[in-house]
Amino acid sequence: MKTTLKSWATPLAIGAFAISGVTGLLLFFDIEIGLVEPAHKWLSWLLLAGILFHAISNRKSFAGYFTNKAGIGIIGAAVLVTVISLLPIFGEGEEDHGKENTGKAAVQAMEASSIETVALVLKVTPKELAAKLEKEGIVVENSSMTISEIARKNGKEERTVLGSLLGNPGKGGERDRDGDDEEH
User: Which residue ranges does the record annotate as region Disordered (predicted)?
Assistant: First the structure.
């Protein structure tokens, strides 16, 4: 049996859409179990490839969508939403609506601070913070180490170490968006 582009492009697009759809829904509802986030980010490339090959293998039908108003309207709306979503006016970038993103700046300052400094901010002793991290399997050699240094020496992300100190281990200090702080 001869293998054609059509014979595998559409199944690739469908399979990749299933992965992207399920992992996207889980991320939307803050259910980050297993490898949901990296699978969503990295396997989205399969979706792009699948859709690209599907469009190529069905190019005559695809081109037909640009000849009717409904097709042009839907594709145009999708392009418009994409362009608008890339504009910095809704940003999570360095600046948010012309103002510095203070939350991000505070987290970066904490990550660059020593355990001693973080202890002062949290009104606990450096020993208490070190003990809290050690319960999570994170080794603190001395209290003058910064959160970034501790993370690097333990093969962790800074946000994970900081999250452990702030009471949400493994989640990088992120709280549920609905405010109940419960595990899902």
Answer: 158-184
